[in-house]
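Progress note, project year one: complex with iron/sulfur cluster.
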Amino acid sequence: MKNAVVLGVNPPVYDFTFYDLWAKPAGLLFLLDYLRRRGNTVMLTDCVFEGRTGALSFGRDSIKRREIPKPPPFSAIPRRYYRFGLDEEEFIKTLSPLPSPDYILVTSMMTYWYEGVFSSIKTLRQVFPGAKIVLGGIYARLCPEHAAMSGADMIQTEPLDLDFCQPAFDLYRGLRYGVLITSFGCPFSCEYCASSALEPVFRKRPTVLVRSDAESQLASGGVRDLAFYDDALLIDREKGLYPLLSQLKPQDIRFHTPNGLHVREIDEECAAVLKKSGFKTIRLSFESSDAEMQHRSSDKVSAEEYRASLEALKGAGFTESSLETYVLAGVPGQTTESVELSIRFVKDLGGVPRIAEYSPVPGTISFEAAAALLPGLVDEPLLCNKTVFSPYLSRIMTHG
Ligand code: SF4
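Model obtained:
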């Protein structure tokens, strides 16, 4: 494809809750960079970013929300349901002045956010009837048959080789944080995670590219915070992360790790490097103190290793509030007691537990077990919503 006009679209989110945890459509931005390098004109409409209403800490934004009727599968759920980001009128207003695109690339993230995707495609068809619409992203890859009902002309299901591209963050105006990716995939294979299905081979990006990503995002002027999107940031850190941090050191940057870090990798040296380099928000992937759950989590961390890493991080000067620990809740087979014990374990060691609510992800081992409890999951991705699956639908995390 050459000399085409291409519009990338990040749809609004339909959900009970949504928080900007440094969330940007990185895959779409890599693809737009790839297409631009090949002589195409690229544009971006990010309905979530454009719906920002105010500044939060560390560059994040609060996102406008409008209550909408719950879809039928959620009719009995006693929670309010929202559209986060631009509403339809604002979306049309944002699109109208743009040159007519030849292609529109719509991205997707959580499988249970597909309503925002379908709604965007409908709007895009009205505004740009002549454009070819391609749907890609995580939902499209994990649920291609369901995505075929989206109204898109084509569903992108194969992984793209974009390793040597750079995310086109310059398409944003008014960005206050950036995103870095030093590697794709993860060497582990936890039974509830789709990382290996989406990125079968764990591979590092050249440090020179990651540094260039950082520098171009910082050069935009308003960016002081950078969030790492890696699933395995600390693996091979001597070859990737450490050289990067030492090259970026003279700048006043605050780093964040919204994806949990592999706890086993954090020794005293690592904790000191993170502290010295300006890491402000650290999330630790602990998941559970229960040996069986640890096994289902690739045995990536033991209770003793968690204890040691927490000590190392505190010894390096991190405060408790900057160190949150992910405790997984709601995986089929997990009990409420097991989650309570894990929370207590983390607290007793001076950690701050943060519950990671389980959401069934198609293609994983846990999805099969979840579908055995709730067969409707197979055809209706909405039922995988993390807010409802464990407490309301499967009742895995309900007492009594
Ligand atoms: S370690 Fe994290 S990213 Fe890797 S497979 Fe397990 S849950 Fe997924």
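The CA atoms of residues 102 and 131 lie 5 Å apart.
The chain has two domains: 1-166, 176-400.
No further modelling is planned for this target in the current period.
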